[in-house]
Specification:
With 235 residues, the chain is of the alpha+beta class. The chain folds into 2 domains: 113 residues, Phosphorylase Kinase, domain 1 (2-Layer Sandwich), CATH 3.30.200; 113 residues, Transferase(Phosphotransferase), domain 1, CATH 1.10.510.10. Helices cover 29% and strands 29% of the residues. Strands 3-4-5-7-6 form a 5-stranded antiparallel β-sheet, with helices on one face. A hairpin with a 2-residue loop joins β1 and β2.
C-alpha cells in the first residue's frame, strides 16, 4: 500500500515542508531538519518532544508526532488536534499554546504539529511546589492559573469549540507564570452552546456526563468543572 499517497488524500494541504514565523524570523523547514532533543511526554495517540531546527539552534519547538495509520480513533484525534490548533493557536491568544506549522513525515506515516515550548506542565509544577515546600504561594498561583485558563476556555467558546480534556497535563506554564491550554485532540464543536459526544478523562468529567450510555448534552461548564478538579488535584 502506498501510505504516502493515502496521507496526501487525507491532508492535501499538509506537506513535508512548511514556512514558519518564529518570533519574527521566517524559516522554511522540512521534516529532516527537525532534531529531537528530549522527550516531553507520551500518550495514547502520540509523543511530544523538544526539538530544534538544523542550522538554527535558536529555533526550539515542541513537536507532537501522531501516527496516521493505526486506528480510526487515532485518525480522528490527529485530524481534530490539527484542525483546532490551527483555528485557535495561530491568532496569538496569550493563553492558548501557539501553533507554528504542520508537517507530514511520509516515511513513518506521521503527522507532526510544531508548537511553542513551555517550561512545565501544571501537574509537574504542583509536584515541585509540594517537594520544595513553597505552598505559601499556592493561592497566588491558583488565582493566576484560573484567570488564564478560564480566559482560554472563553476564547474557545467564542469560536464554538469545547476542549473536553481539561486536566493538569494539558495546562502548561512558562517562567513568566503564564498558563496556556494545549492538546485539542478530542475537542469538539458546540451547536447552540452544547455538545453531546462523550469524550474526556473520566476523573475530570462532571456528574451529568458519568451516566453510561446517556449522551446528555453539555457545554463549557463541563470544561470549567474539569478545571476546578484540576485545581485541587495533587497528581
Amino acid at each position: 500500500m502506498d501510505t504516502s499517497s493515502e496521507i496526501k488524500v487525507r491532508l492535501p494541504d499538509v506537506k513535508d515542508t512548511a514556512t514558519i514565523d518564529f518570533n519574527g524570523e521566517i524559516l522554511e523547514i522540512n521534516v529532516q531538519m527537525l532534531q529531537e532533543l528530549d522527550k516531553l511526554g507520551e500518550g495514547c495517540f502520540g509523543t511530544v518532544s523538544l526539538a530544534d531546527v538544523k542550522d538554527h539552534p535558536q529555533v526550539r519547538m515542541a513537536i507532537k508526532k501522531m501516527a496516521l495509520q493505526n486506528t480510526g480513533e487515532n485518525q480522528y484525534t490527529a485530524m481534530t488536534d490539527l484542525k483546532t490548533i490551527r483555528a485557535v493557536g495561530s491568532e496569538g491568544y496569550p493563553y492558548i499554546i501557539k501553533f507554528y506549522a504542520a508537517l507530514i513525515d511520509t516515511n513513518d506515516s506521521q503527522l507532526i504539529i510544531c508548537m511553542e515550548t513551555m517550561d512545565s506542565s501544571m501537574d509537574r509544577f504542583y509536584l515541585t511546589m509540594h517537594r520544595i515546600d513553597q505552598l505559601q504561594y499556592l493561592d497566588q498561583v491558583l488565582r493566576r492559573l484560573s484567570n488564564n485558563i478560564v480566559g482560554a476556555l472563553n476564547y474557545l467558546k467564542l469560536k464554538n469549540i469545547i476542549h473536553r480534556d481539561v486536566k493538569p497535563q494539558n495546562i502548561l506554564v512558562n517562567k513568566l507564570s503564564i498558563y496556556k491550554l494545549c492538546d485539542f485532540g478530542i475537542s469538539g464543536l458546540l451547536k447552540d452552546s452544547v455538545a453531546s459526544t462523550n469524550f474526556g478523562s473520566m476523573k475530570y468529567l462532571p456528574p451529568e456526563r458519568l451516566t453510561p450510555g446517556d449522551p446528555t448534552p453539555y457545554g463549557i461548564r463541563s470544561d470549567i468543572w474539569a478545571l476546578g478538579i484540576s485545581l485541587v488535584s495533587k497528581e
